[in-house]
Amino acid sequence: xxxxxxxxxxxxxxxxLRYNSEVIFENISFDIFESQTVALTGESGSxxxxxxxxxxxxxxxxxxxxxxxxxxxxxxNIRTIRKHIAWLxxxxxxxxxxxxxxxxxxxxxxxxxxxxxxxxxxxxxxxxLALSPALLEKQTHEISGGQKQRxxxxxxxxxxxxxxxxxxxxxxxxxxxxxxxxDIFASVPNRTVIAATHDTYWMKKVDVILNFDKKNV
Length: 217
Prior knowledge:
This protein is α/β, with parallel strands linked by helices. The chain has a single domain, classed as 3-Layer(aba) Sandwich (Rossmann fold), CATH 3.40.50. It contains seven helices and nine strands, in the order E-E-E-H-E-E-H-E-H-H-H-E-H-E-H-E. Strand 4 and strand 5 form a beta hairpin. Helix 4 crosses helix 5. The longest helix is centred in the last third of the chain and has 15 residues. The chain is globular, with a radius of gyration of 17 Å. It starts with 9 loop residues before the first strand and ends in a 6-residue tail after the last strand.
């Protein structure tokens, strides 16, 4: 999928979302362009995760308009849109026994089967994230929470998608590793990265900060 350089990866117009009687956000209108890095900030419950879920097509009851890769976000287009998204939610139910299976879980989907990374590429990405390739032979219960988070971040990078969505991607990491991860995702070529985060260092590295405490960003 090739975009005109002037065509936004994401375009929103007057987005409005509420749960029961609570307004999550309203009147959101902005554009996000190719290769931009974006931080979603705000207190817990301000709508950051809801916005990521909306982009990924998991929230359908909203008003206003969103276009992703030039396609309107709706039931007809969501499968096509998702083919170009790597998504790391904040909480993941780990059902994989081995670290290798955890890393390669997204490649079981039909859209990703043809792009399974080779060992050389896996090693390259692991080492960039300060992970030993030897971890691939371990079971998930044998590694730390921070290592699991980096394995999942490695999986996002290896999928080589045009849009990467991350929800609190450094929450389980120490300061040194948080900074390393932020540096990597701030400089991924030809990919747009949107992260919900409270990480002040990450926010220093991005092109755009959207503050959801304001409700209308």
